[in-house]
Amino acid sequence: MGGRREVAVSTRKLTKKYGEHLAVDGVSLTVRRGEVYGFLGPNGAGKTTTLRMILGLVRPSGGSATVLGRPAGSAGVNRYVGALVEGPGFYPYLSGRDNLRVLARYRGTGDDDVERALERAGLAARAGDPFKAYSLGMKQRLGVAAALLGDPGLLILDEPTNGLDPAGVGDMRLLLAELAGAGHTVLLSSHMLSEVEETCDRVGVINKGRLVAEATVGELRGAGGLRVRAEPVSVALDVSKRLTEDHVTAVDGVLHLRADPGRAAEITRALVAADVDVHEIRPVERSLEEVFFEMTTDEEVAR
Ligand SMILES: Nc1ncnc2c1ncn2[C@@H]1O[C@H](COP(=O)(O)OP(=O)(O)OP(=O)(O)O)[C@@H](O)[C@H]1O
């Protein structure tokens, strides 16, 4: 039950340091087979670096990643993985179709596969145009088409809606739904909640290199919270973090705890036991946007 065969991607305390900077800080996430998983976070949160480690393109400073039951980047595994991570090097003077044909040769697939990928990515009508004439959105579609070559079971797409207009975003949503319906697993990143909330089965939220939540969209939305005004704020923050495994943000001296509102009495007791004066503690209902904003707001900046 729930064994390795159910898991498409799993990372354990995956970490990447650039000098002293922790770009990815102990990320443990799980993508199940057949699901569309949204990896959500603001710019610079560490999404691309995490995806690159999962693909074996960047060596982790610590922790590990497993893809389809094998170590990330190990021989043979990438055959089952299609990826769009920062524009692949396309030849500017070749058409979209010919660019894909070159890649298809590497992947050991044929022209039928290229046509199917172009069709699925919504690029068939312009497949004969040179790459350099493509708009950003069309380049993005070509990147997705390239990821689809060989019909891999697992797709890893870094910001696939980047540069797409609203119609393009809608098309991408349909494509993802179609892929999921056909049994593919999709791991995609985005910095826009609205882009993942309809499409994704589950969401991992990353902020400043750390995974701050992993849940279904429904769970995130339903997740209760508590608003606490207490002094001294720094002690209240420490206690709250301890009680909620770090799921606390402080905005203007008010703490927002991602915790079951039913825990209000327990949390109050712990605060008082730490000599904190509790002025107010009450449950809060928030929209998904607020939940996301709270989880990804830089405490220091917001204060
Ligand atoms: N090769 C590198 N050398 C040094 N720092 C890096 C390198 N790659 C990424 N970083 C830093 O690591 C952090 C995370 O970057 P990353 O690109 O993974 O974030 P992201 O969530 O994908 O953001 P974006 O959506 O802007 O691409 C950033 O602070 C970035 O500046």
TrEMBL record:
<dbReference type="GO" id="GO:0005524">
    <property type="term" value="F:ATP binding"/>
</dbReference>
<feature type="domain" description="ABC transporter">
    <location>
        <begin position="9"/>
        <end position="233"/>
    </location>
</feature>
<keyword id="KW-0067">ATP-binding</keyword>
<keyword id="KW-0813">Transport</keyword>
<comment type="similarity">
    <text>Belongs to the ABC transporter superfamily.</text>
</comment>
<dbReference type="GO" id="GO:0016887">
    <property type="term" value="F:ATP hydrolysis activity"/>
</dbReference>
<dbReference type="InterPro" id="IPR003439">
    <property type="entry name" value="ABC_transporter-like_ATP-bd"/>
</dbReference>
<keyword id="KW-0547">Nucleotide-binding</keyword>
<dbReference type="InterPro" id="IPR003593">
    <property type="entry name" value="AAA+_ATPase"/>
</dbReference>
<dbReference type="InterPro" id="IPR017871">
    <property type="entry name" value="ABC_transporter-like_CS"/>
</dbReference>
<dbReference type="InterPro" id="IPR027417">
    <property type="entry name" value="P-loop_NTPase"/>
</dbReference>
<protein>
    <submittedName>
        <fullName>ABC-2 type transport system ATP-binding protein</fullName>
    </submittedName>
</protein>
<dbReference type="Pfam" id="PF00005">
    <property type="entry name" value="ABC_tran"/>
</dbReference>
